[in-house]
Amino acid sequence: MGIAQRIIQKSTLKKGIVVPSLAFILSVSFISSFFPKRAAALLNQIQGFIFTNLNWVYIWAVTLFVFFLFFLVVSRYGSIKLGDNDATPEYSFFSWVSMLFAAGMGIGLMYFSVAEPISHFSDQVFGQHNEIQRAKDAQLYTFFHWGIHAWAIYGVVGLSLSYFAYRYKLPLSLRSCFYPLLKDKINSPAGDLIDTFALCSTFFGITTTLGFGVVQLNAGLVQVGVMDGYGFGYQVVIVAVIMGISITSATTGVNKGVKFLSQVNIVAAIALMLFILALGPTVFLLGSFSEGLGHYINEFFNLTFNTHAYEPNLHPWFFSWTILYWAWWISWSPYVGLFIARISRGRTIREFIGAVLIIPTAFNFFWMTVFGNSATWLDSYQLGGLLSSMADQTDRLLFEFLNFFPATGATSTLAIFIIFIFFVTSADSGIFVMNSIATKNAAKSPKWQLAFWGILLAVLALVLLNAGGLGSLQTMTLLTALPFSFIMLLFCYSLMQGLTVDVNYYEKEFSPATVTWSGVHWKERLQRILSFKDRKAVVNFLQHTVEPALHELAAAFNAQGVSANVAAADDYMWVELTIQHERIDNFKYGVRCEKKDISDFLVSEENIPDLDQNRTYIPQSYFGDNRVGYNIEYFMREEVIADVLKQYERFLELSSQVKNEIFTATNLKRRNE
């Protein structure tokens, strides 16, 4: 057997996912590399049309995600565990939150911590506002874009994946989220198509982020004097180092790699933030954080639903910030959601949503306040608009900002270290997630396979960076957000279907027919339990058990002066006892033959006798007040009589209460009509 054959044999890649994914990825990358201007022009035109005419789709989709998760937190579903009922979390709370944070938005916080607030603060579209109002709005919009809405997008995908993977024991892949809709068809080509979409979206997102992020790292290294230029050769070195460490980390396992690096980086990031807080306008920052948080809460609903339909002058800003952010978060959600799901086994739904929505959001708010408000404060009171004049130089703004604090070299070096580690952890987890998608969550994959994804990421990022095609790839990634937003809405529907079945399963009580069981007649009851009846058997039960019981009871009623009669269909598909009344509803107790569907899994179970089709028939009770009845197939003749008497006693008790007259005096109302 040759080396190639051995490699293929040991590979865990699934052809139905990998082959179409690579074909699409390489095709798009080729076009973006060799025809960057044409590709960019066409894709930007499509993006502009979607953002202009379908921006409301993004707004409503993200709004529904937010309120859907809020509903789950306060509902009875919140206590359901992502795993077996006795499952325990795999990671400590700090490790879990660190990895959540690093995978989700770590690098973005460094990139936009100064750039976004300064951009909003200096944007001419808000030029009619005074400086104080522009600073407040800059903080508000930054909170909005990096707050609960963004994490709700990740939360929907992560929660759906976690639930179906750990609760339903399905593969940790997006196809599993459609199980309530597709059932076993998730393993068909339709399931492969869903995973192919996820793999392409993840690859494009990581590649473009890696490419654009390298530019910021290059700027930082020039700032501290490690590099003396911005050429492509320097970028090759940066990518090679990042991906080399990422591949090494990925092949050592997520526990050893991402967990350790995430914890180190969170500590370093907090240290840098506290440094800026201590040496910046501390009192102002603490006060503005409190005020900004209140402003965000007060404006939450307005921000959530606002499409600026009455403010056409704000549309360019709205499309290039809010809609672009929502599209970007949605396009990244397969990657981040899969990684979040991978580390969240054993958490309850309430704990998961609370941690995913609140903890990163709170940290993001404080981080953006410290860096963003320090920048706007410096720009207003000390720098005379210097930072505002550099608003379009996003790559350099953070390092330019750090120049106005003591120990510039040390803080810039620390910032570069944080950015670098965030890149490594993002690429590391990205390699893991892509391999997981491509293998349908195989338990173990060869190391060369993980290295393959890392090398492919690095090579295509550099090719596109050199050819100027990264912008097209980024636009392509954003365009995938529109169809994926509809897929995510189906996730919500499927998740509710699964949760409803889950709760009903664990909360289902014993059948009413079993409440009074004792050891008497246990052999006959066992025989009935193990037999799945056809229509003839149920009709026989109604004719020879139910009807004689009702006739015996009717005779007893008539002997007591209460008029009662029994009626039955000619084919004995139903039998009922009726007691007629003048001023209140008639009392009726009936039993009918009803069809009941049976799970295909139970039909295929070999250890179940007498079951060769996926339907059976049961004797179902029904009542005069149209309440839902129940299966009485296990009742003996005496138990049928006892059940009727229980229902009649209930009927008389309810009819005797004045407050129930509106329900019980139906016949009287009919006469009045």
- The domain count comes to 2
Q: How would you state the average pLDDT, rounded?
A: 85
> What is the number of helices?
29
Here the CATH topology of the largest domain equals: Amino acid/polyamine transporter I
Protein name: Choline/glycine/proline betaine transport protein
Membrane topology: Multi-pass membrane protein
Subcellular location: Cell membrane
Keywords: Cell membrane, Membrane, Transmembrane, Transmembrane helix, Transport
Care to describe what's here?
It comes from Parapedobacter luteus. The protein is mostly helical and 673 residues long. The chain has 2 domains: 3-309 and 318-503, Up-down Bundle (Amino acid/polyamine transporter I); 522-672, no CATH class. Helices cover 69% and strands 5% of the residues. The chain is built from 29 helices and 4 strands. The chain has a 4-stranded antiparallel beta sheet with strand order 1-2-3-4, covered by helices on one side. Strand 2 and strand 3 (587-597) form a beta hairpin. Helix 6 packs antiparallel against helix 20. The radius of gyration is 33 Å and the shape is elongated.
Quick tags:
673 residues; mainly alpha; Amino acid/polyamine transporter I; 2 domains; 4-stranded antiparallel beta sheet; 29 helices; 4 strands; 5% strand; elongated; disordered C terminus; membrane; cell membrane; transmembrane transporter activity; BCCT_transptr; Choline/glycine/proline betaine transport protein
